[in-house]
Amino acid sequence: MKRLVFLIISIFFGVQAFAQTTISGEVHNEKKQPVYNASVMLLRVTDSLPMAYTFTDEKGHYQLVTQSEEAKLLIAVYGFNLKRQFKEVENKTQTVDFTVQEEALQLKEVSVKSEKIWGGNDTVNYVVDAFRDTTDLVIADVLKKMPGIEVKDDGKVEYKGKPISKFYIENMDMLQGRYNLATTSIAASDVASVQVMENHQEVRALQNIQFSDNVALNIKLKENAKGTFALMADLGVGWADSLQYEGSLTGMYFAKRNQFLGTLKANNAGINLVDNENVTVYPMASMVEPSAPGISGVRHTLNRSQGITLNSLHKLKNDADLSFNLLVGSDRNRKSSKSHTLYLLPDDTLNLVERMQSLETARMLEGSINYNLNKDLDYLTISLTASGHRNWGEGLVDNGELIRQEENYQSLCAKANIHWIRKSRRDPESGIEFNSTTSYGTLPYVLQVAPGCFPEVLNDGEDYPMTLQNIVFQSFKSENFLRFLTSVVWKRLRIMPYFNFSMEEQALNSSLIGQNAEGLTLQFAENQFDNEIRWHKYQPAAGAYFTYDRRRVNVTLMVPVQLRYLQLDDRIVNGSDPQIKVLSQPSLSFRYDFSHNWKVSTKIATYNNTPSLRTLYSGYILQNYRTLSHYDCPLADTYGANGSLTFSYKNVMKYAFGDFSVNYNRYRNEVMYAQSFEGNTMVINAVEQPSWGDYLSVSLYAGKGFSWKKLNINAKCSYGLGRSPHLVQNQVAIYYNQGWNANLTASIAITDYIFFNNKGSFSQMTSSLEGFNDDSQPIVSLIDNANLSVVLPFGLSVTPSVEFYHTRSEECTDNFVLLDCSLGYTFRKVKFSLDVNNILNTDSFIYSYYSGIYGYYSAYLIRPRSVMLRVRLKVI
Amino acid sequence: MTKNAHFVLLLIFAVSRLALSQPPVNLDEYKVLDQSRFIVTYEVMMTKDSLKPTEHKFDRLVLMVGDSISTCYSNTMHRFDSAYTIRCAHKGRDSYQGLRHFVGENGDVWVPDVYKYYIKKQMTVMHRMEVPGNFVPVYLYEEPLDLMDWKVSFETKEILGYQCFKAECDFRGRHWTAWCTMQIPVQDGPWKFCGLPGLILEMEESHGHYAFRCIGIEMRKKPIVWCNSVDYQSCTRTDIVRQMEDYHADWNAYVRRVFPGIIVRAKNDGSFEKVSVGEKKVLPYNPAELE
Known about the structure:
Chain A is mainly β.
């Protein structure tokens, strides 16, 4: 029996020993160093299917065991960054060593069909690559395709129809409001995601204390775009009626603690590099000149402009941001139009037809420094901004008579702000807040009009060659706010007392003189045409904020009591006595989150306005060649209240956004401004006559994105109805204006190579006079802009676009079309484009509108057919 | 303190299923462990209730593979952490929001993050318990890498253009089938799966309760980071399993144990209801690891 068992075991093990093959060996690299953790796989020779596998140990050793009866075996050795190696061996126990070479791993990439949008209650994240296509150059191009977001022609961004209040790049605010520099410069391919933050309270220390309904946008860059300096160059040259050029150099650097964006630009292609963003004083007179239509500036601006911007931000050791901004620019702009202004009067309609030309030159220099420390318990912002503008202009008006105008002015503005919050270390709910803003502006202005205007009023009916209006306007304003962030809390109700002191000083010196044929000065009636006025307003106030904040409900009530001291010191006529008033202008805001998707908010506020010196001067000022005005009126107030109700919807998972809002405003004036016409000239006088007006508006916004063909639709519709009293020819006339407006933008990727964008807007406006036969026709305007981008092989693309305009008014019905086409070619990282604009060579843009008591119709000279070759490349 | 006042105070801590969330992580405070060589995205299918086997939930997992370390995390959780990080940077109104806000209609969250250390042959699992608010620590436990005993077979199929072979294993009470490609020579895969001579592109559980499918592969260098700002607490896998069992066996009792003061809870419609001490709330429990 024992023998039998032994025999069976022997046979079994014998067979086993016969069928089992052990292959062992060592894997090392070319330097004879052992390779750790390489995969060693035994494969069937016929079909390379795996039979056994193992991994090398620290010494590079491996051992594989197989019971395969195949005559030959295949051994594969491979691993991370190793060149794969195969050896065919006999099926027998043996040692097989491998010497492997290093080789970088290359994979066939598979792109994830990413979710386009995701987010929480108050944040929405847009994945840029899900919206981007090959024709998009800068981030503004992609933002336009995101549901809920709209980009204006100047690069400014709106979310659900509301302008964003802050723009961050990697959570840092370097550009201080001029963020269109970034949206039109940062390459779309460098951005990973765009984050929109609703109800954004930028001050950390005020979080959960002061509710904010602001919207902020943050650009998150891809890793490879961070910490490297990029220099982009755009160059263009072409021909319209003269040589056209456009060039820019943009340097960018975005790192964790430093950011920089600098641009150097020059063009005569319609881009104006001068802006008035931080200007606080504006001229009180102006040339009558062509009024630019509300279409893209590159269509109508016939200019020559240069500009430099330098912006940088540095994070300091205490995590505060220190930023510098410098902007230098100049612009020379030529305008030409024929306009028809229609004044609706109770007993008549006045027609004014003017052919106009003007040439304006503007130069600006602006600099700002900002320090911002934003922590949970401490907040400090110090910002200083100074800007200077210099403008010259000359213009011609032909209204049957040829009128020559010249203006010359320079403004200097400075603004300083300190905002400081310190919260208690023991009780972080309590603290103190101080916010002080001081600004100063001065504006000397000169207007020359030839021939002399208003001879009946100014020169006893005798014609004279020239009128000269000098105005110097100065303004100083200081607002100081102190608030105690108390921890007086009762059932989430917080009470915060505050004090405010504001002061405003304005000074106006003006003189109106004439020049006779001999070039000698003509003094008009003494004092009647001069001003030397000081205006003072001091306003101490005290009050309290009552806030109630729970997870879904937020209520803020502000109850102030103000003492207002107002004095008009007219040094030529008679100084008026100071006026002292006690005022209270409470306001209430309420927000309730119905659900994750629905929110409702309402705001009610009362206000009080006092006219500034701009409408209080007693000596006549020539506002323009056809308006001579003065205000003969005691200090007067406007009281008003406005309320709004907004329903807001957002479903991020379904890419759906919506807003519906109703606004109502009602006001009461203590004075009215009488406008009387003498021929083609208008004289404004202020008279004591209480009146009231109101305005109701309803607006609806809806945005929806679809996965299907990347379709994105944004629609906005609004209706407004207003009642406004005017004093015309010594009669009170009530004007009713009503209008509605609908805008629709849509983008779709028809295929992977064909993209279509459309932007359409329709508006209709009517204006009528109460008690008078109303046969005025509405002004109807329809604008549609469509473009189709087709991506062709070999890096080519073609983008034809068409803009259709239809204007219908009492005066005329006008239809016209602007056609453009762009041919693109990409060679490596250089993008070329050949743009032909205004192919049909349409010469003027026609538009009309109603405003208050007048209707306006204009045919404005636009840029003729132009051809331009552009190159965009990354220099570094 | 009167009973009413007590009730009002406790209201502040009122909880609902909707308000539940894992503790968030600030992604701005981290140390870099490695650089990824490539990033793999998987779609994970989960069946939360074994009695409803056709009700599937989905999430996306991101596997970042570096030279010596890989990490695999839930994309939904990562987005939730990103939103929290923005909040930390801005302290805006986007105050702490439940993770549920980040989950789509058929979505859910694959909770554990896994860091695999190839040289140490160890993995660190980061587990966040779903509890009210963010007042609990993030649990960590370690396990060896060679958890699975794979059997390879001759079956093959092509996934996303990669030739894959089949391998099978039994892992903690479930039978899994993997599809692995030699063309991506890393011994890694979704979640805890690893140890095959190539990247696992697909995993299926035999009852169809769980599956991982690769949906994207990207050659991309990105830091593999370890977030420092978190209150980590070391534990064992058994501790987590016990907590998860308690949590699902009686959710009310679990929450009462974690927050002894809670006596009311918010219903989904916003109203409140009192939780009686004896009331039991059983949640379906069908974990990926049954043992």
